[in-house]
Known about the structure:
Elements: E1 2-4, E2 7-12, E3 19-22, E4 25-28, H1 29-32, H2 37-77, H3 81-95, H4 99-109, H5 119-143
Antiparallel strand pairs: 1-2, 3-4
Helix pairs in contact: 2-3, 2-5, 3-5, 4-5
Amino acid sequence: MINNPYNSNKKYILSKGDFKCYNNYIISRWEVLFLDWSIVEQYLPLYQKAFLLTLHIAVWGILGSFLLGLIVSIIRHYRIPVLAQVATAYIELSRNTPLLIQLFFLYFGLPRIGIVLSSEVCATLGLVFLGGSYMAESFRSDWRPSVKPSTRLD
């Protein structure tokens, strides 16, 4: 029998093969089932900081996507000669490449040509780049009439 290290009222019956060696420590299968809350407590400030950073990147990414999508959709809707082709190429490029590849390009590719950005800025720009194309298509589809009005009065 083994005691639960976090709840002394529960006991478990061990059988053959219940112990494993991990990094020169012998642990039982049952010890893996329980969470050591002191470790969570120790890293809680780091989780809070990560949560705020994620929220910051998400808010700026959404706002930037909205603005970029609005500008690109206006350009495509009014078919401004050269800019409409650039906007179409941007939408096709950003929608047909995965976000991870875009982030790798921003973080590892741009420093090769002398443009060094922080990881937070790269994440925000990647979200704006990808989200802007989806927003542009969404806005543009809203401005197009879906059905022509009927003049027939039957």
